[in-house]
Specification:
InterPro entries: UPF0178. The protein is an alpha/beta fold. Helices cover 44% and strands 15% of the residues.
């Protein structure tokens, strides 16, 4: 059975709650990896994994433990690219699937936006996490679990 891996450092609480409920419902081994303690309910299926505070320590730990077919939930595009290269499936907390067909373009756009911000351009931040995002994520996670759990 594939496992769920969550890049928990930037995972919205509402998405975390959806993941916990889904893991419990389906009996899917799920790991929340962060450089701090993530508040989680006591569970047989859901486990926290706190790593050192070093730069990208959580990302490195996730990549080291991922296996082909696992699902990584993250919005970190370089981490997503590494996971895809390792054979994992990747989904954002907004329910967007990242794969070989779209990850490079997404990373290039992220790099372009970083260059704009570095030059003083005000590009704004990501939009807030909406009820629509929550629904899209919950539905996408349920579809993945139905196919893989």
């Amino acid at each position: 059975m594939p496992s769920l891996w969550v890049d928990a450092d930037a995972c919205p609480r509402v998405a975390r709650d959806i993941i916990v409920r889904a893991a419990e419902r389906t009996g899917t081994p799920t790991w929340f990896v962060a450089n701090h303690q993530v508040p989680l309910p006591a569970s047989r299926w859901v486990k926290p994994l706190a790593v050192s505070h070093g730069f990208d320590a959580a990302d490195h730990e996730i990549v080291a433990r991922l296996e082909e077919g696992d699902l990584l939930i993250t919005s970190d595009l370089p981490l997503a690219m590494e996971a895809i290269d390792k054979g994992a499936q990747v989904m954002t907390t907004r329910g967007e699937s990242l794969d070989r067909s779209n990850i490079r373009a997404r990373v290039q756009m992220r790099d372009f936006m970083e260059t704009l911000r570095a030059s003083g351009e005000h590009t704004g931040g990501p939009k807030g996490y909406s009820d629509g995002d929550r629904r899209e994520f919950a539905n996408a996670l349920d579809r993945w679990l139905a196919r893989n759990a």
